[in-house]
Design goal:
The complex is a heterodimer. Chain A has a two-stranded antiparallel sheet with strand order 1-2. Chain A has helices at residues 2-11, 21-31, 38-46, 57-67, 72-85, 89-103, 113-123, 131-142, 148-163, 178-192; strands at residues 18-19, 55-56. Helix content of chain A is 64%, strand content 2%. The longest helix of chain A has 16 residues, at 148-163. Chain A is elongated and about 60 Å long. By secondary structure, chain B is mainly alpha-helical. Chain B contains 29 helices and 11 strands. In chain B, strands 3-4-8 form a 3-stranded mixed sheet. In chain B, strands 5-7-6 form a 3-stranded antiparallel sheet. In chain B, α9 (218-245) runs parallel beside α11 (274-287). Chain B is elongated and about 165 Å long. The chains are: A mainly alpha, B mainly alpha. The interface between A and B is medium-sized, with 15 and 14 residues.
Chain lengths: 193, 805
């Protein structure tokens, strides 16, 4: 535990008792990670981050303890495992759901469209056939923040798109969020047109 | 007593001989006798002797001899009948080329043949019955134990069938059928035929079994099927021919006639089992195949009948089509289409709808969309009520109040009513018109009738919440400006609405009535208080004017108390208002009063150059006149608009309207400098000293906001302008959102967990009495509630929602 605390002290912010944005960037550098990579989200998830650019003392120390590491090298060794966790459906789901809360501005219920789009770009590449069209659709037609419900269900929807890319089985009256229904309509038109 | 040796008395019993000849003789005697009987000759032997002969033969085991012998006698006789009686009387085809419409060769002598056959049959039956009686012992003792043999009478019938009917070399059966059916054909064409003859033939065939099982008679196996087949062909053809020249009514009358004819036919000379079968043929061939042709016939079909109100014709069609499978469905389709087209016309004539180029009336060949006539709510409602009445009458007089029909009529009218997007407003305006003027002078019954009919139409309206809003607005105006023609009628309407929609709907309306009553009471108290206190003068030495106030409970009435600007009242008016306010608040603490000056009026006495008039003007107008134009010196100056605004502190929109009312109406109290109807800032106004009028008491109404703009069209009834309507609908939509959410929460609270589709269905059902939310709208509200954490999605099943306590 002492070693973990020492690590914490290394990265913690000068004034506040958290790992601030500088500490986070430094950590990424030391781990050989680009701060814009998807695996950083996995790391943030492990360390219980509550918002971008900050690790709480508790989250940081407990997270490292759970991972069973107490050195930078040890943490670095975990990185490939974390990368593979992106491909494991159940952990990926957790990371995906986590990202919504993580990316929110404090006090807001929804995730800003801009943030949502950039996170989707990180997480859903290769997992969602219509990712590009979805983003285009939102930028043209929605222009508002994304609700938690929509964010969460997009994952199920992405899975559905793999098996039913033409939306032949899409039921308008079933429980998809309205935004996804609109997207289906939009996409159907694009396919036909 | 001496006993004698008994001598048995012996009866002389004929000696039994085993002499075969004895039996042959006996048989011969019988054979001759039977032949005689068959030939209707009187024999020489008596019945008893014949009986005894037969008896002996059977007793001495000569049954087979007897039975076979009799059978043979029958056969011989029958064969001779065929050769010498029946074949010679065969009908002749008159010519190979002529045939009736069924392709049968026309026959002459058909009836004669049947007569011959009938006579033959009758004689035969009589004879064989006699013979049966003679041979009763044989039946009892010989035949009964022998399952291979028929009783002698049945045997005689069997032989008749075999030898005559199904005679091999001679086509007797064919002739029987063709002559019989030819007779039927002739009767159908209107000829008189010998019905009892055919009856006899039918009975003959009924008596003859088809085969040894005895399960069907020849009637059922050969006559009936053939009859049904030729009837089918006949009626198929007849229907096609007649439909070329008959109109719908003539055709249906003819069908009725044919039905009763076939009924008579079966009862006169056929067997009851044939009746339902021939009925089916009639219904199928004459009606079922031609349903749409009959219904859609130009100038005589269903639509024409409805147009000309042909009650009897419609009833006939209803009754006849009831017997078919699709008849009523086809009628309902045409009926709905017709009602829809009538409704469309009403919507076009009075509802302000645009006519599309597919109008069913005989329009010209223009293909542009014509814009609608100006809407007329009163006429629209009256026309719709009349439409419903008209078809209710048709349903009761021609369709036997059939539930399917009345349901269809009602749902079609509902569609048509709601096609007019302003239906709610129109119904409220109709009621308004009647409660203000229309019901004047009507008897209590007439009033009740009108209110009932209005409620009937109200039931069809889909957006009842919109209606409620309009009704409140119109009622408010009626109450405040005292325009109701009858208080009883007002209450009558409210109580009917309560029955239809429940207490919630009418509770605020009743509150409005209550407020008016309470206001009267309050004013009475206030007046009596004032009369006892001493008169106070205002600071400007003017007496305080009398004031009459209506106090409205804000939640009941449709006005908003939010935007009431501070008007620059002159001191005596201000004091009047203050005094009242003090009085009221002393009685009801904890309340807040907001004066709605934009709705008030004042009675002013104005001295003009040559006359003095009592004029009723709006409160705002009062302020204008008192603050700007009421002077002790002669008043001939034009005052600029901006100055007036300064002196009165009335907001622009209202001030301009007020000035227009005073200067541009029928009675011009002010003169306007600056052209046109609109008021510009640079315009000036001056007091019209030269004003005169015939009446001494005048009311100057405030021009309504729609008419005050010079670009509006005339609007006599008070239908909302498009902008106002848009504003109303916005408010309605807001209210609806809350109602949907409230419904969702209430349902989820009690059910805890529901599937998406079920939840949506329940919500729609719960709100159906007020309006119909779309599925999309409910879905959006659900999402909103998920956002706000009233509901959540189930973790395992995306389609389930859980209530979050």
């Amino acid at each position: 535990m002492a070693k973990i605390n020492a690590l914490y002290q290394k990265y913690k912010d000068e004034e506040d008792d958290v790992v601030g944005i500088d500490g986070v960037l430094q950590l990424c550098e030391d781990l050989g990670l680009d701060p814009q990579e998807a695996v950083v989200l996995v790391l943030a998830w492990h360390l219980g981050a509550e918002k971008i650019g900050e690790f709480t003392k508790k989250g940081f120390t407990e997270g490292l303890a759970k991972l069973g590491v107490d050195t930078i090298q040890g943490l670095k060794n975990q990185i490939p495992i974390m990368r593979s966790q992106l491909d494991d459906p159940s952990t990926f789901k957790e990371v995906y759901f986590f990202t919504f809360n993580f990316g929110r501005v404090e006090g807001q219920r929804s995730l800003s469209l801009e943030s949502a789009i950039s996170f989707w770009g990180l997480l859903l590449v290769g997992k969602f056939v219509y990712l590009e069209e979805w983003i285009e659709f939102l930028e043209e037609n929605h222009k508002k923040a994304i609700s938690k419900d929509t964010w969460n269900l997009l994952l199920d929807f992405a899975k559905l798109c793999e098996t039913d890319p033409k939306f032949e089985n899409h039921d308008e009256d079933s429980a998809w969020p309205v935004l996804i229904d609109s997207f289906v309509e939009y996409q159907k038109e694009q396919i036909e047109g | 007593m001496a006993t004698r040796k008994r001598e048995s008395a012996r009866i002389a019993v004929p000696r039994r001989t085993t002499n075969e000849a004895f039996f042959d003789e006996a048989w011969e005697r019988l054979r001759l006798a039977f032949s005689d009987i068959l030939n209707k000759d009187q024999g020489s032997l008596s019945f008893e002797e014949l009986y005894r002969n037969a008896y002996n033969l059977v007793v001495h085991k000569r049954g087979p001899l007897l039975y076979d012998g009799v059978s043979n006698v029958f056969s011989v006789h029958l064969r001779s009948l065929v050769d010498h009686v029946l074949v010679p009387s065969f009908p002749i085809a008159t010519s190979a080329n002529t045939s009736n419409e069924l392709g049968q060769p026309s026959l002459s002598g058909g009836a004669a043949f049947l007569r011959t056959l009938r006579d033959v049959w009758n004689d035969y039956v009589t004879s064989t019955m006699m013979i049966r009686d003679v041979l009763r012992y044989m039946d009892k003792a010989y035949v009964t134990g022998n399952s291979k043999l028929l009783p002698i009478y049945n045997q005689s019938l069997h032989l008749f069938k075999q030898t005559i009917i199904t005679s091999q070399p001679h086509p007797i059966q064919q002739h029987i059928l063709s002559t019989y059916l030819d007779q039927v054909y002739k009767e159908r064409q209107g000829d008189i035929i010998d019905k009892s003859l055919l009856k006899s033939i039918s009975e003959m065939l009924l008596s003859l079994d088809t085969d040894s099982t005895g399960t069907t008679s020849l009637y059922h196996s050969i006559l009936e099927p053939e009859f049904l087949t030729t009837s089918t062909t006949f009626y198929t053809q007849e229907s096609e021919n007649l439909l070329k020249s008959f109109d719908a009514t003539q055709y249906l009358v003819h069908v009725e006639t044919r039905i009763s004819q076939e009924d008579a036919r079966v009862s006169h000379y056929m067997y009851p089992t044939t009746l339902p079968k021939i009925h089916k043929i009639l219904y199928d061939e004459l009606l079922e195949r031609h349903l749409s042709v009959i219904i859609e016939m130009e100038n005589s079909g269903l639509v024409a009948m409805l147009d000309s109100n042909k009650v009897v014709d419609l009833a006939r069609m209803y009754k006849l089509f009831a017997k078919t499978n699709a008849g009523h469905d086809e009628m309902l389709k045409a009926l709905s289409a017709y009602i829809k087209s009538l409704g469309k016309t009403i919507n076009f004539d009075f509802g302000g709808a645009a006519r599309d180029s597919n109008a069913t009336t005989s329009s010209t060949s223009s293909s542009t969309i014509m814009s609608g006539q100006p809407p007329n709510p009163v006429k629209w409602v009256e026309a719709m009520i009349e439409l419903k009445d008209r078809f209710d009458l048709v349903a009761s007089s021609s369709f036997d109040n059939d539930k399917l029909f009345t349901r269809h009529i009602n749902s079609t009218i509902e569609v048509v009513v709601n096609e007019n997007s302003r239906s709610s407003e129109f119904v409220s305006l109709f009621i308004d018109e009647n409660l203000r003027k229309g019901l004047k002078g009507k008897s209590e019954n007439e009033v009740d009738e009108l209110l009932d009919k209005t409620i009937m139409l109200f039931r069809f309206i889909g957006e009842k919440d919109v209606f409620e809003r309009y009704y409140k607005q119109h009622l408010a105006k009626r109450l405040l400006f005292n325009r109701s023609v009858s208080d009883d009628a007002e209450r009558g309407m409210i109580s009917r609405l309560k029955v239809e929609c429940g207490y919630q709907f009418t509770h605020k309306l009743e509150g409005m009535f209550n407020d008016m009553r309470l206001s009267l009471e309050t004013m009475q108290s206030y007046k009596s208080l004032l009369s006892t206190s001493s008169t106070v003068l205002a600071p400007n030495n003017l007496p305080i004017p009398e004031i009459s106030v209506n106090i409205l409970t804000s939640t009941f009435w449709p006005m908003s108390s939010s935007t009431t600007p501070q008007i620059a009242f002159s001191p005596e008016l201000t004091l009047a208002l203050e005094k009242f306010q003090k009085f009221y608040l002393s009685r009801h603490s904890g309340r807040r009063l907001t004066f709605l000056h934009n709705m008030g009026t004042t009675d002013l006495r104005i001295q003009f150059d040559t006359c003095k008039k009592e004029i009723n003007v709006s409160t705002y107008a009062t302020v204008v006149l008192l603050n700007v134009f009421s002077t002790t010196t002669p008043n001939t100056e034009f005052v600029e608009y901006t100055t007036i605004r300064e002196k009165t502190a009335i907001p622009d929109l209202e001030l301009k309207r007020t000035l227009q009312s005073l200067s541009l109406g029928k009675y011009k109290i002010l003169l306007k400098r600056g052209g046109g109807k609109d008021v510009a800032d640079s315009d000036g106004f001056c007091f019209n000293g030269k004003f005169t009028a015939s009446l001494n008491k005048i009311k100057i109404p405030t021009i309504s906001s729609s008419a005050s703009s010079s670009t509006s069209t005339s609007n006599t009834i008070g239908i909302e302008t498009d902008e106002d309507r848009a504003a109303t609908m916005d408010r309605i939509d807001e209210a609806r959102k809350y109602q949907v959410e409230a419904a969702i929460v209430r349902i989820m609270k009690s059910r805890k967990q529901l599937e998406h589709n079920v939840l949506v269905g329940e919500v729609v059902k719960m709100l159906s009495s007020r309006f119909s939310p779309s599925f999309g709208m409910v879905k959006q509200r659900i999402e909103g509630l998920i956002e706000r954490e009233y509901l959540e999605r189930d973790k395992k099943d995306r389609k389930l929602y859980n209530y979050v306590a």
